[in-house]
């Protein structure tokens, strides 16, 4: 809420470092459809791995661990939890499943946040309920007295604070035209500063991040675990939160450290997806044969748009990838660049056509 008040986001001067990250993410998002339409079996393997890593890492950040051999049966199978830690890993999987399947219908409201908490903290006595006692962020160091790093919103003020945050977020998106990634980063930061639950706030914040990203078309988290990347950068995660939460209660906090951390995580996920997707060859099957038949049927030079018209329902990026394959194998030649490039089918000189 305090990141949205007094036109903070509208008037925020975005530094060049943040602009570069946002531009990189925008470029990667433009390639997302190409990456995610290549090989169903390979992509299923990426999804399964991401789900396992997300359930493991998001809990391990909070000190909850389970044996490696138990992860697959707990997350992807029907294994019954043996203890509280295994229950929490399986609970996180259930929450992920709801976001993956229902993100388009889940409004970001207090009820949804409580629902996510109830799913990922089902074994706790206050699952789905806002805190009843004040809580603070306390750091424990070996041999030293505990240090309060941040005083969260008081329990009595929490329901109103969460309601205001959700309304501010929606208003920023719908009325102020704040770029979605900026609004999402502010949403998650304020959620963590409010700390609305007794326990499980970190896990809910990561579920909230995925939900908001999916709703705005950033679906890289389906294939690459953002939770794993956060865990791998755990020290930076806590340091950036510390820096951006200072003077939060006064509305004078610095947004950039947290923004840059979260955007860097998203960019890393897209880079990893591109690397892994690059190892997946373009699919072969009925769709591929339709495109190949359309290419062979061209009487002379043709443009990519000619193949699009001949193959309704097949994406432009997918056709472009197949043409690149055929060019590499010597089955087609290309003259020019960009949308106006002219292609010509040369015959089955390679192994693709």
Summarize the structure.
By secondary structure, this protein is mainly α. It has helices at residues 8-11, 16-36, 40-60, 68-75, 84-102, 110-120, 158-174, 180-194, 201-215, 226-232, 234-245, 256-277, 286-296, 304-310, 316-329; strands spanning 136-139, 147-151, 332-335, 342-345.
Notes on the protein architecture:
The protein is mostly helical. The protein folds into 2 domains: 5-277, Orthogonal Bundle (Fic-like fold), CATH 1.10.3290.10; 286-345, Orthogonal Bundle (Arc Repressor Mutant, subunit A), CATH 1.10.10.10. The chain has 15 helices and 4 strands. It has helices at 8-11, 16-36, 40-60, 68-75, 84-102, 110-120, 158-174, 180-194, 201-215, 226-232, 234-245, 256-277, 286-296, 304-310, 316-329, and strands at residues 136-139, 147-151, 332-335, 342-345. The strands form 2 sheets. A two-stranded antiparallel ribbon has the order 1-2. A hairpin with a 7-residue loop joins strand 1 (136-139) and strand 2 (147-151). Helix 5 packs parallel to helix 9 (201-215). The longest helix is centred in the last third of the chain and has 22 residues, at 256-277. It is globular and about 75 Å long. The mean pLDDT is 89.
């Amino acid at each position: 809420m305090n990141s949205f008040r007094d036109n903070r986001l509208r008037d925020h001067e975005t530094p060049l470092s943040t602009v570069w990250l946002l531009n990189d993410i925008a470029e990667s998002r433009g390639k997302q459809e190409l990456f995610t339409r290549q090989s169903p079996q390979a992509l299923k393997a990426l999804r399964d791995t991401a789900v396992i890593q997300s359930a493991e890492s998001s809990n391990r950040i909070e000190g909850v661990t389970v044996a490696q051999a138990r992860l697959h049966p707990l997350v992807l199978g029907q294994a019954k939890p043996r203890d509280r830690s295994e229950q929490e890993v399986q609970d996180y999987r259930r929450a992920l499943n709801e976001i993956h399947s229902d993100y388009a219908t889940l409004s970001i409201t207090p009820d949804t946040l409580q629902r996510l908490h109830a799913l990922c903290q089902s074994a706790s006595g206050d699952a789905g309920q806002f805190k009843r006692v004040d809580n603070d962020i306390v750091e424990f160091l070996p041999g030293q007295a505990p240090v309060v790093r941040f005083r969260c919103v008081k329990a009595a003020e929490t329901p109103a604070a969460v309601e205001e945050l959700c309304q501010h977020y929606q208003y920023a998106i719908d009325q102020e035209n704040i770029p979605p990634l900026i609004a999402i980063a502010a949403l998650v930061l304020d959620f963590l500063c409010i700390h609305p639950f007794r326990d499980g706030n970190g896990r809910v914040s990561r579920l909230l991040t995925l939900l908001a990203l999916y709703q705005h078309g950033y679906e890289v988290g389906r294939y690459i675990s953002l939770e794993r990347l956060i865990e791998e950068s755990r020290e930076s995660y806590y340091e950036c939160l510390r820096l951006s939460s200072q003077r939060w209660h006064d509305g004078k906090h610095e947004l950039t450290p947290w923004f840059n951390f979260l955007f860097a995580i998203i960019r890393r996920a897209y880079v990893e997806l591109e690397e892994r997707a690059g190892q997946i060859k373009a699919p072969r099957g009925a769709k591929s044969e339709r495109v190949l038949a359309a290419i062979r049927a061209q009487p002379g030079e043709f443009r990519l748009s000619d193949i699009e018209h001949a193959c309704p329902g097949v994406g432009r990026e997918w056709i472009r990838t197949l043409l690149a394959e055929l060019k590499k194998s010597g089955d087609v030649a290309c003259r020019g660049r960009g949308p106006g490039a002219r292609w010509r089918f040369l015959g089955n000189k390679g192994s693709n056509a």
